[in-house]
Amino acid sequence: MTIAATQLHPLFFGRVTGLDFSRAPDAASVAKIVEYSDRYGVIAFPETGLDDARHVAWSRAFGPLELAPHFVGSPTTRRLSLPELFEAGNLDADGAITKPDNRGRLFARGNKLWHTDSSFNPQLSKYSLLLAYVVPPGGADTEFADLRAAYDALPAGTKAEIADLVVVHDMWHSRQLAGFPDVTEEQRKEKPPARHRLVHRHPGSSRLSLFMGAHASHIEGWPVEKGRALLRELTEFATQARFTYRYEWHVGDMVMWDNRVSLHRATPFDDFAYKRDMRRTTVIDAAAA
Ligand code: OGA
Ligand code: MN
């Protein structure tokens, strides 16, 4: 089968078909996927037939993988056997729907805010690959926003104002926005903030892009509230309908997004009534280290 892509949104988001995920990743397929990812920013692979081991193997073809975190206060028992798999659904260690006070459920609330994965780490994550195992009624779609197109559309004055700004990204900032309780000093020390440029050139496309989202706490060297207002304004701008695409999941679909040029968020569903089983790998941007 030939590998081919169809663009699903006027500005970004491709649907890629023709890959044989039952095989080990090969250099030609991996190069083609990177080419499509660089062009579209977010790409969906319908009905991959992947399982945990091959999900991890294909992800690793793009670079070293992050290990799912074990911060102070994060869930101590895990449902997923491979350490590279992040829990993105609503299931506990026994595969049951999480209880209201489950730490994982509280953490997952942050996924409903527009964000880019792991931007609170000093070393960025370039790709996330999210695979659907159980899709609840109503779909629980994921929304994506194109940060390169949003940057392009900014007024010239804004581009000049933000060109050299540095943003402080803090995991606890987004957790607090999502209603996460009692962040302790110990937790803050365990996961300190990281700094990243607000505008950067995406290496794979040479296009400029914004880089912010829910972990973006404030602007370095600016009064905190002034920085937050600017970040809020930019996020509102970048997530207007004209820059966003809403993906409807089917079991077996995998979506791969480039965290350096896109934002994403989970949409609400009846998560006390229905199971949603989604598993994610995250590829570290080793070249940027
Ligand atoms: C993620 C994430 C959104 C969703 O896995 O990083 O934000 O819809 N997921 O599950
Ligand atoms: Mn995410």
Structure description:
The structure is a single chain. With 289 residues, the protein is α+β, with helices and mostly antiparallel strands. It has a single domain (4-288), classed as 4-Layer Sandwich (Double-stranded beta-helix), CATH 3.60.130.10. The chain has helices at residues 27-40, 52-60, 103-108, 147-153, 156-162, 171-177, 185-190, 224-238, and strands at 4-7, 14-17, 42-45, 86-87, 125-134, 142-146, 166-169, 194-197, 199-201, 208-210, 216-219, 244-247, 254-258, 262-266, 277-284. The strands form 4 sheets. It has a 7-stranded mixed beta sheet with strand order 1-2-3-13-5-15-4, with helices on one face. Strands 12-6-14 form a 3-stranded antiparallel beta sheet. A hairpin with a 6-residue loop joins strand 9 (199-201) and strand 10 (208-210).
- Run of helices and strands: EEHEHEHEEHHEHHEEEEHEEEE
Mean pLDDT: 94
Main sheet: strand order: 1-2-3-13-5-15-4
Structural class: alpha+beta
CATH class: Alpha Beta
Present as ligands are: N-oxalylglycine, manganese (II) ion
Number of helices: 8
Beta content comes to: 15-25%
Roughly how much helix do the residues carry, as a percent range? 10-25%
